[in-house]
Every structure is written in C-alpha cells, then in structure tokens.
Amino acid sequence: MYEIVTKRELAANIYLIEVAAEDVAKKAKPGQFVILRLNEKGERVPLTIAGLDLENGTVAVAFHAVGRSTKKLAKMKEGDSIHDLVGPLGNPTEIAKFGRILCVAGGVWCAPLRFIVQALRDKGNEIVIVAAGRTKDTLVFEKELKELSDEFYVATDDGSKGHKGLDFLKDLLKTQKFDHAMAMGQVVLLQTVTEITRAHNLKTMVTLASIMVDGMGMCGACRVTVAGETKFACMDGPEFDGHQVDFEELIRRQRVYLPEERMASMLYEKLGGMKRG
Amino acid sequence: MDREKRKHETPMAKQDVLERIHNFYEVALGYTEEQAMREAQRCLQCPNPHCVEGCPVEIDIPAFIKEIKEGNFLAASVKLKEKNSLPAICGRVCPQENQCQVLCVLGKMGDPVAIGRLERFAADYERMKGVTVPPKQESSVTGRVAVVGSGPAGLTAAADLVKLGYEVVMFEALHAAGGVLMYGIPEFRMPKKVVQAEVDYIRKLGVEVKTNYMIGRIYTIDELFESGFDAVFVGSGAGLPRFMRVPGENLGGVYSANEFLIRVNLMKAYLFPEYDTPIRLGKKVAVIGGGNVAMDSARSALRLGAEEVLIVYRRSKEELPARHEEVENAEAEGIKFMFLTNPVRFLGDESGWVKGIECIKMRLGEPDDSGRRRPLPIEGSEFIMDVDTVVIAIGQTPNPIIQRTTKGLETTRWGTIVAKDETGQTTKKGVYAGGDVVSGAATVISAMGAGKRAARSIHEYIMSKKGA
Ligand SMILES: Cc1cc2nc3c(=O)[nH]c(=O)nc-3n(C[C@H](O)[C@H](O)[C@H](O)COP(=O)(O)OP(=O)(O)OC[C@H]3O[C@@H](n4cnc5c(N)ncnc54)[C@H](O)[C@@H]3O)c2cc1C
Ligand SMILES: Cc1cc2nc3c(=O)[nH]c(=O)nc-3n(C[C@H](O)[C@H](O)[C@H](O)COP(=O)(O)OP(=O)(O)OC[C@H]3O[C@@H](n4cnc5c(N)ncnc54)[C@H](O)[C@@H]3O)c2cc1C
Ligand code: FES
Asked: Please, what is the average pLDDT of chain B?
C-alpha cells in the first residue's frame, strides 16, 4: 500500500499528489513514469513522475481526471492508500548540455516538464518554455515554469490566454536558434510541434503515452512505429525522435478502447461515483 | 495417445462443454477420493520404475501413489513435496504424456497410470485440509539471497534457500507473484487461488516477497550486491512477445498473446466492468500458433463470447507443441484448426481495426534443428480470410532488461542468459539463473528443476565464500 501524503488541485480536474514510495523516490529520474493500481480491481494507470521528495520519501505525479481510473484517483484523499505503485519505469530524459532548448508541454504535462526542466537547467542549458492548454483553465504551474525559463510563452487553443494555437512557434523558430527541443502532451500537440521543428531540422524528443498494460515490456500494447520499426514505448521510450514517429498509427491505437472507456466512465459516474472502489 | 486405448484409466470429471465455454471456472474437476484410490490401484509398483526417470525433478512416483492407494492422502502429498514444492501446479500443467506417463510400463500399451491427476489429487487434498508449514529448522548458515522473478523457477529456488536457513528476498516486477501461472495460464486451467496458496506457503516459510520491484529499473544486479546480498538468482522468465513482422501487425485488434492473456488473467478483463481493465474482442478470432499459449488464448476468446475461434498453425496436427489434453479440450469446445497455414499480412478497415488476414498455404519439408519438419510456403496459394480479432501466439523470448543492465552477464543471440545446466551458474560471480530466461520458453517443471539446482549451488557458493 502506498499512502497519498499530499494532494493539491492545480486546475479544474488536474491534481498533483505525492505518494509515499521511498525506494522509488531514491532511484527515479526525470522523464520516467510509475504505474498505479488504485485497488484490487483496478487497471494499471501510467503517470509521469512530476517530482521527488527524498526527505519524505515521496513521488509526485500530476493527473488529469479524464476517465474512470483518474476520476477515482481524484476522489481519493490525503491519508488514503493506493494498492500498487511500481517504478521507476521507462528511460530517463537525456539530461545533457544541449545549449538552447525549446520545451512545449500541454495541460497536465506541464507538471512533469517542470521536473525535467529543473535538471536541464542545472546542466546550464538555456530554456524556452511554451505552456499550452485547450483554454486558460487547463494551464498549470505557469508561475513556476516562468521562473525556471529564460523565455516563457503561453498558448491556448481558444486564445483565452497568450497565443492562439502554436502557429507562433513558426516565427519563433525563424528568429531564434535552438539546439534541442522536446514536447509532451496530447498527440496532436506533439504532431504540431514536430511539423514546425522539422522545417528547421531541430531534433525534437516527444513523450509517447501509448496505451500500456504492464509497462515493463511484456505485452506489446504500447507498440509504436518509429523510423519504420516497431518499438515498445515502455521499454524503448517513452521519449522518441518526433520526426521519426508514425503519429497516425499512435492516434488509432490510442482510440482502440474508447467505447469501453466511455462505458466505464459513465457507469462510474452513475453508480460508483459516490462510493469508493 | 488415443482415447480409445485408454480403457482402464479412471476418467476425470470435467465441466460440461456447453457450460464451460461460457465461464472461466476450472475445466478439469479432479478425482474424488474413490477415483484416486481406484486409479492408484493400477500402479504396478515396479521395483525399477521407469516413470521416475521421466520426471525432471525425480519424484518417487510409485511411493506417493502407494500412499494414495492405501488412503494416506496427506502422506502422499508429503512424499511429493520431498521433490516438488508445487505439486498442485505440476499436476495440472505438466506435459505428463511426454515425461513420466510415456515411460510407465502400462503406458507402453497406451494406457498409463494417470500420474498427473493423482499428483493433483494429493496436492489439492492437502490444500483443502490446510497446509502445515514446517517449523523453521535450526540452521547455522547465514547469508542473504535475492531472487528475481516469482515464477516456478524463482518460487522453487526461494523455497529451497529459505529452508536451508538463508534470508531470502524475492523481487517481482508485477503486482502479483506467480509468474506465468498468474498472468499467462487462464483461470479455467490454473485457478489463481491455487497459485496464491503456493505463494502464501513460500511467504510462511519466511521468504520476503516484494511485488512492484522491477530489477534493472529500480536496482541493478550490482546494486543488489552492494546492498548486502551474497548471491542473486535470476528467474525472470521469457515474457517478451514475439511478433511476426508482417504488414498490418500494429492494427487495432491484433494482440500479442501476452497482452491478451495479461488483460484476461492478471487484470481479469473477463469481469469488466466490475474490474477496470477492458478487452476488446470481435466475433471471429484467429489465434496464430500451436502451443499451450495458443490453446489458452483461443479458449479464453471463446469464453469471452467470440462466435468463432480459429487456430492457425503453420505445421500439421502431429507437430502441435501444446499438451495433448488441452488440444482435446479445445477441439471439444469447438475451436477450429487450420493447419499448414501462415499469415503473410493483416488487413485493416478505415478506422484501423483488423478485418482480415492474408494467409499462405504451407507444406512440410525436411526436419529442422528442432527435429520437426520445416514448414515451407506453397507459392501462389495465398488467400484472404475475414476475421476481426487476431492473437499472435508464436512464442516469447526472455525479458531483456536484466541482461541489458548487468555488466559481465553473458547472453546468447536469442537473448537467453548463459548459465551452466547443472548449477545455474552464470558468467558473473554470485549470479545464478534458471527457468525460461535460460532455456527460452519451456515448461513449469523444467523451470522448477533449474531453480532447485541453482539453490543447491548457491548454497555451496555461499558456504565456500563464508568458509574462506
Ligand atoms: C507513459 C505514460 C505516461 C503518462 N503520464 C501521464 C501524466 O503524467 N498525467 C496524466 O494525466 N496522464 C498521463 N498519462 C495518460 C494516463 O495514463 C491516462 O490518461 C489514464 O490511463 C487514463 O485512465 P482513465 O481510466 O482515467 O481514463 P480512460 O477512460 O482510460 O480514458 C479517458 C480518455 O483518455 C484517453 N486516454 C486513455 N489513455 C490514454 C493515453 N495513454 N494517452 C492519451 N490519452 C489516453 C482516452 O482515449 C479517453 O479519451 C500517461 C500515459 C502513459 C502511457
Ligand atoms: C499461456 C501459457 C501457457 C503455458 N502452459 C504451460 C503448461 O500447460 N505446462 C507447462 O509446463 N508450461 C506451460 N507454460 C510455460 C511455463 O509457464 C513457463 O515455462 C514457466 O512459467 C517458466 O517459469 P519461470 O519461473 O522461468 O518464468 P515465469 O513464469 O515467466 O516468471 C518470471 C517472473 O519474473 C518476473 N520478472 C521479469 N523480469 C523481471 C524483473 N526485471 N524484475 C523482477 N521481476 C521480473 C515476471 O514478471 C514473472 O512474474 C505456459 C506458458 C504460457 C505463457
Ligand atoms: S506496456 Fe506492455 S510492453 Fe509496453
């Protein structure tokens, strides 16, 4: 059992929790993820590590309550326990001195990005951050990211704050030279960013959140095509060179369980929302 | 072995076919006391028993059968456990027809004693009565051993080492211990409560079982040594699914057998939405392959409500590597077999879901390394078959993470760890390995045998190290 030590709502339906998992906290690195299982009947939910507290032995993750499991997690309180937590999984982000780095993250993904950027900054990189969201209400950690960056931009799909959409990146790339880029978020965001950076031959690492079951290389549910080859996102990734990724396939594979997810979510709202478990 | 020849063997009751294809309860119901005693009567108690030679862990078969014959069921179980710490499991899944029973004198006439069923009976009897845990032996040995993986190899090594007096910590990456017995073999063939009883037993013996620890990610093998372990046993199995590498393999509805079985068994997708994990299945399911994994996938698909389930195998019926009993069960349940056929690509619909397979007919050529006749494609025989779900069950190779993260641990080009057969000793000092991670996908009993031999040599290794 893994206790939820702190819980904070970062934005509507977006939460940050710190979970007691001392052994994991000691070994985890930015860019890696954990898998949670809320209770004995729970599914395995992958979430990216958004921070570590070595003193208290906790691992932070941020999540957007979008479906049954994450809504259940959102209902849990400080002091409640999560049945299983395994990690760290996946490969860490490459933390090196690149030079000037463009970092784009959407919504909840700003939380793990913050953790990664802290490490990249310590290596002496110059950091340009774009925090993106559907609307201004899905932006998180704006202040913190701004402080960590040399330049900071906000972009929303509906234009409710900052730039409208990511088109402004085209101009940014014309006027500034970057040595490295990374993007985390919904697949459309990854696609948009990589299309823009491709024109400038700017290597862009993207985090692929394909559907996972075990997260340890045993099922192949997470397989993605990168440079024409099948890769397992959990073992070979989750970060890949965005210019080599078959995003269309990834989108199709992410949608496979949509009907079941809708049904589970509906059932949960109707029947289980009040009860635990 | 033909059914007709087995006229003296005591049949074992099974759940009725029409019922069982709609549920996940165990198919084989096991012997009653009377049936077990009757079957035990048939054993000739050979003074020079051949059956024992066929048993990879050398169970004293006539001796345990004699106890059953005389109604001493608990004594039978004790006899079994002298050599085999997991009889309830082996009685259910061992390929007895190729091991002990094929050498049984009565077996020469095609009607061997049902040794596996008797083994299962004795073990189940003991479990029902409540297993007694032997008191911890006074022991002068000291030392800590890490066991990586909780499948049959790891469970056996851990049990033997803890009995010798070592402090044993078993690390399992998944949230449940038991290896393939938990995540792969379905409930209807290997009830999870039977596996959990075995894991509990190991815990009660004093083994510390740590689930949710993936070695290679959280600790490397070297870090285990640094933290004070004297030796490490690696029994991480062969869990990496093989794909066919043909076009269309990443379509929706194309599963590796591991994904399919993990969703169904470990995550209990057959109880969705009570359990959270779903499994999406169409009406017509094709399972590619001919081993136990293929049979288990096909029979699971049927129970999940598929209208038609086909096994597509590139060789002929003779070469099917699955246990005979499971092939018979699959046939009885209405699974269809398509032999001498191999997929060349998968076809998808507009949404990216699989809608068909292009197959090619095969013929058998000369025997290959495995001694089985090599399948060869018949040019121009391609045809298209409509299906809406595919499960690829063409084999697994070892999980690679430990091999990748351990310096000095030699591996073969198949990704298996190089280890001496008699001792399990690897090329790295203090590291022993056994089971599927060394042999490639094999059997429960061979993994147990390897765990046993490794435990013995780890004991010798630590004794000589401490003695020096
Ligand atoms: C390596 C990895 C790291 C991740 N890190 C985070 C994280 O830090 N924070 C976070 O909020 N989420 C993260 N995710 C996604 C998260 O795991 C899913 O949102 C979660 O499993 C949804 O479960 P659910 O039952 O609540 O929703 P479901 O009912 O399963 O899904 C609800 C909606 O989310 C979509 N969805 C489901 N799974 C995914 C997925 N893997 N990627 C994209 N969309 C998905 C569905 O299509 C559906 O529209 C990560 C996923 C992976 C694979
Ligand atoms: C569907 C199916 C049906 C089968 N049917 C039969 C049958 O009827 N009869 C028979 O004899 N055999 C059968 N087999 C084969 C048999 O199950 C295996 O040969 C046997 O389980 C191998 O045992 P093992 O201990 O080597 O590995 P496994 O049982 O594979 O156990 C290895 C364990 O190690 C864990 N692990 C892996 N990597 C790590 C890591 N880095 N850190 C921590 N833990 C790790 C895994 O999660 C797993 O739990 C079947 C196999 C399958 C898949
Ligand atoms: S999630 Fe199972 S292999 Fe990656």
From this structure: 92
